[in-house]
Amino acid sequence: MSETGLSRLFEGVRQGIGPGAATFVFALTYGAAAVQAGWGVAAPLTFSVLAFSGSAQFVLLVTLGTGLLIPAVVAAVLVNVRYVVMSVALNDSLRGGRLRRALQAQALADASFAIAHKGGGRFDLAHLIGSTVPQWLGWVSGTAVGLVVAPSAEFMHDYGLDVAFPAFFLILAIEEMRRSSLAVVAGLLGAAIAAVALLVLPSGIALLLATLATGIGFMFPRAFKRADEEGDET
Amino acid sequence: MRIWLSVGLVTVATWLMKAAGPLLVGKRRLSPRFGNAAGLAAPALLAALLISEVLGEHWTEIDWATIAGLAAGGTSYLLKAPMLVAVLIAITGTALLRLV
After folding, report:
1. Burial class (CB in 10 A: 0-12, 13-18, 19+), B57
2. Hey, which of A118, A161, B24, B63 has its CA 20 to 30 A from B71?
3. What is the ipTM of this complex?
4. Calculated CA dihedral for residues A55, A61, A66, A70, nearest 10 degrees
5. Which residues are paired to A170 by β-bridges?
């Protein structure tokens, strides 16, 4: 098995193609919604290229239409607060000085975080960057096509296309939970916290609270020895 | 103007949050116990993202066809279906249920 940086990068790209396809479908909806909200073409496309953040972009689209600028920006930013936790988790696996690491961390995306995770809190940087490439391409091209074609919400709904994105979250969650029984507990706990929090709180805060489920990692340090040994990939 | 300003603010904030680890922690290494907890961030977050997509804020987006489609896709994946096949099962299952 060749384990050069380049082959690991391509392996990451390969693993990112599925989530990239789902991201494309999700981006169609975003492009179409931006047209309907009267955002024009340049702003949403620039937003997708630079921010590459589906949920925050959707939230801004909805909140800016109905309210003031600062609360809308805050709501959109809160959707992404989970990145702070993910970035801290990732930091040990990044290379170089602070600035280089900060640049590498820009490859962070939900699916990439899962694809790059090698168990026990270690992440493969080449897999992270590689798997983000098709997702970024899917997000940007999907936005562009959505802006031009503007498929109706009914079309996406009738063909079940709105399910593509959550379906990938489901599969990646299953994949993560296969690692160890503690990962199953963390997943179930995270889901339960999010479900309860969503009743009263915005989704960004609910997601942030769900990361508290990682706290069980402090409670059962001995479980990790075994989980690490089992989960260590070849 | 309003649109561009808010787009710029959200973009920069997203960059900073993605860089939060390097910016706050730098080259220091997390203690092993933090490392252990960090490994659980992926399952906890992905499960929470799924729940938030399915339920929506205040549980207003619950759709039984979506849930049934996702259950079919998830089950097929547990039964060793490839990733894309499982997603297609979720999509077509949901679409078929919405037909009836």
Report:
1. middle
2. A118
3. 0.90
4. 80
5. none
Pick from B15, B58, B70: which is nearest to A106 by CB?
B15
DSSP chain A: ----HHHHHHHHHHHHHHHHHHHHHHHHHHHHHHHHTT-TTHHHHHHHHHH--HHHHHHHHHHHHHS-HHHHHHHHHHHTTHHHHHHHHHGGG--SSHHHHHHHGGG--HHHHHHHB-STT-B-HHHHHHHHHHHHHHHHHHHHHHHHH---HHHHHHTTGGGHHHHHHHHHHHHHHTS-HHHHHHHHHHHHHHHHHHTTS-HHHHHHHHGGGGGHHHH-HHHHHHHHHHH---
How close, in Å, is residue A71 to chain B by CA atoms?
10
Is B93 an 8 Å CB contact of chain A?
yes
Inter-chain residue contact A89 with B86, CB threshold 8 Å? no
Closest CA to A92 of A121, A117, A118: A121
Is the whole-model pTM more than 0.80? yes
Interface test with A, best of B1, B4, B51, B55 (most A CBs within 10 A): B51
Cβ of B19 and A87 within 8 Å? yes
CA B28 to chain centre: 29
B contacts of A39 (beta carbons < 8 Å):
3
pLDDT, tens digit (0-9, with 9 covering 90-100), for A53-74: 988 998 898 888 777 899 889 9
Average pLDDT over residues A17-45: 93
